[in-house]
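Long-time lurker, first post.

We've been arguing in lab meeting about whether zinc ion would sit comfortably in this protein at all. Half the group thinks yes, half thinks no, and nobody has a model to point at. So I'm putting the question to the forum: if I give you the sequence and the SMILES, can you give me back a predicted structure of the complex? Inputs are below. Any interpretation is welcome too.
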Amino acid sequence: MKLKSRPKRQLHGLTALLFGLLSTAMVMTPSLAAVQDITIFECGQATTPDKSIFSPGIDVGVAYEIPINCYLIRHDKGLMIWDTGLADGLINKPDGVAIANGKLKIFVKKTLASQLEEIGVSPNEVKHMALSHMHPDITGNTSFFPSATWYVQTPEFEAAFGSNPEKFRFNPKTYSGLKNNKTVKLDGRHDVFGDGSVVIVPAPGHTPGSQVLYVEMPSGPVILAGDLWPFETNRTHNVMAPDNFDSEMTQKSTEKINELAKKTGAKIWIMHDRDQSRSLPHAPQSIR
Ligand SMILES: [Zn+2]
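Top reply:
Settle the argument with this. Predicted structure of the protein with zinc ion, as tokens:
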């Protein structure tokens, strides 16, 4: 018994040593999987004769073209779409469609479908989808991605599929197909690829379950902020848009996301800011 137990103990010691080395190596060598790049698509525009309708007291009476962007995140483990823009069908209305009592006119000049095709991506390859929120300028092309798992905060899901979605200015016709997508309801943060490189972060207020996306690109982290701030000037002047579901909740979310940006060094991409959007390359180029 003694003879047998001795080598066994030695083996245990060696195994323990090997495991020790392995775990040290694992800690020292970060996972090789990572975000490769982000492609920004032009997913519509809105024009307004008065930018201040979204930023009370700032740029009063200034005409403005509001970009609407969608984003494709290419991670080693798969593709993710963040926001889907105005419905591609609007391309058939070259003069645009007036909404909000004529305060806004919406257009689609380039379809999302054609831009995906141009970069050689079939919508069926996109396996992950999340939306900053459920307004119609975000949900227009959700039906392109039936193979994607849809990540949604529970309060947003309940507002969208509840008894009165119009109360939140949602249009169920633009997203009814989502009920067939594999759906993951969230009550907080979600690490999409399990390595901390793409994280959905709740930022409620604009709508009940608004969220932002934190992405670690090769060049550094960014936060895709959805409609948390309509324009840069809202952020620099700390002015809330008047059309939020809950202003106080929005204010808290802006503080939280500013703090996240400060802590991580992330840039904040504000989708509807014209100058910022124009400064970033769009499809077919990508950003690393
Ligand atoms: Zn919105």
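For your lab meeting: The pocket of zinc ion is lined by residues 133, 135, 206, 227 (CB under 6 Å). The two ends are 62 Å apart (CA to CA). Whichever side wins, do check it experimentally.
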